[in-house]
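User: Show me an example of a complex going from sequences to structure tokens.

Assistant: Sure. Here are the input components:
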Amino acid sequence: MPELTFKNLSKSFGSHVVIDAFNATIEDGEFLVLLGPSGCGKSTLLRMIAGLSEITSGELLFDGDRANDWHPRQRGVAFVFQSYALYPHMTVRANIAFPLVMDAFKKWYHLPIVNAVARRRLMKSPDIAARTENIARQLELDSLLDRRPASLSGGQRQRVALARALVRNPSLYLLDEPLSNLDAKLRTQMRSEISALHHKVGKTFVYVTHDQVEAMTMATRIIVMNKGEVQQIDTPEGIYNNPANTFVARFVGAPPMNLVPVTRKGRRLATSNAQAWNHDGELPDGERLIFGVRPEKLQFLARGQGRMPAQVAVVERLGAETVIGCRLVSDEHGGTTNLVENDLVFVRISGNPRTKINEQCSLDYRAEDVVWFDAHTQTRIPVRAAAPALV
Amino acid sequence: MTSTIALSIFRYVLIAALVAFAGFPIYWMASTALSANSELYSTGQVPWPQLQKLPELISAMAGVPIGRWLFNTFLIACGTTVLSLLLGSLAGYALSRFRFRGRGLVGFLLFMTQVVPEALILVPLYAMFITLGLLNNLMGLVLANVGFSLPVAAFILKSAMDSIPYEIEESAIIDNCPRFGILSMIVLPLIMPSVAAAAVIAFFAGWNEFLFASTFLMDRSLWPTSVGLASFIGQYETPLSAVMGAALLFSVPAIVFFLLIQRQIVAGLTAGAVKG
């Protein structure tokens, strides 16, 4: 199984740089997720790994060997496309067996008539037939083997695409947003199936998605990308708890991390308007900071009980939990409220409280739950000896 | 309910009228073939086939090598079809999938071949065929016809190939399928209706060949049926019933070919009309 190394890998289309100096290592057997918004270059990166897109500059190493110019078949990878890319004119059986048939194909089999006969005979050969049926059984496709892709549901097509990738037993699996065409329920189901599959085969998976839930639930490591640049490489927990910059903080988490620009005066933090409160923990150096805290780490309290006065603007009841969007306000002048920030500050609380819109409330936090960012560079400022995030 | 029945009857009557209209030339051909020549040159032609004239027709055609001519026509048509599809699919694939300098120009030049009338290139082609030893040779005729039907086939196939998602081909590349295999095993089966449409065009271009054949083929045994039929026209007399009899035989294989392939063509004409 290969270890993949990227050394200053870049990809440009004309003067448009899609990926700029990408450096990373994908270790053997890990489930690595490339996460980022549409157009950030994650699919292009996957295609470069597969050999479907040329590398403009830099090096791609497979176990230390330069693979920039290797043909896709030399790389021994399996690729699951977003659209599944099944062969519509072939049955499920022929689709799954196709990579095996191609591996056994000789050049002269391409002659007309010989081609059809050779393919039929190879399909029926004991080894190929057994492997095809075995993989179909594993993915519960055995009853669909003689049907064509057009007569299958989205989930079934997705499983056929996975079966076709699995049947060759490759060392590296590349998956390009394979769940994006499925409905929410099926996506959840397939998510766990793919995770289980990774555990079972123990091979390296590189999975592209813009869905942070998929990334957080499946990955052993995540690479967050934006505009062709790596934002952070870390475990899902590391990405969530210690985002490297405000982009990662906003991109990962639903609702995202609350980011409030503040000015530090001693131990006092002031927002852009009149609101200010005393911070009780360690503070980073610098005057202009961004105060970040996850919604579930904020405490939603009655008016006057917390350090940050607020007003309820949105209440989203999700059943087991409620997400409350608040606006920070100042109430220093005899109870009159002035809006401090336009952005909502979200609080996630369990249960279903009787909170009403426009209700006055207050928010509070624990000092250790705060993540600090430099207001100028937008990068995280470590306060204590936290594990440094790779950028 | 009554209006539905009336509509249904109207529909059937209309279809029957259209079928009769389309089929009338074939019927008239059969009717003329089974008529006496004397009737055909007067106003007294019987409008239905007279089966008792069949022995006369057979004896009139006995000296005509119609079988040989049909075979030659078949060779020319099949040769044109096979070569046009083979080269057209390669050209169409290259034009559809590869980005190369001059791609637009190649497409334009292919299109320009359709603007040049056959008669215009007859003399230069004759001179070329003398040099190449292709005069009085069926292969030469196939090549001349391919020159005209290949660009059409290439364009039809290119347009169809453009509609195939590139991901399917990439998937085949990952599955270790070589480029030629992608064309033969993935792309062509997916555009079968368009292949059939191109085949029909190439086949009928070869089947109806007359101008090149009458110019390049001197040997009577090499003539296709079209030239053979034209040779019936005499200075003083044309045996119309024999001409129509031969024409009927000439039409039958073409009709059979079209019937065999028509389902594919209809699918090809409507392909892409709805989201699949």
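The lines above are the inputs; the final block is the predicted structure for all two components together. The interface with chain B takes residues 50, 52, 72-73, 77-79, 81-83, 85-89, 98-99, 102-103, 105, 110, 112, 115, 119, 150, 164, 168 of chain A (CB under 8 Å).
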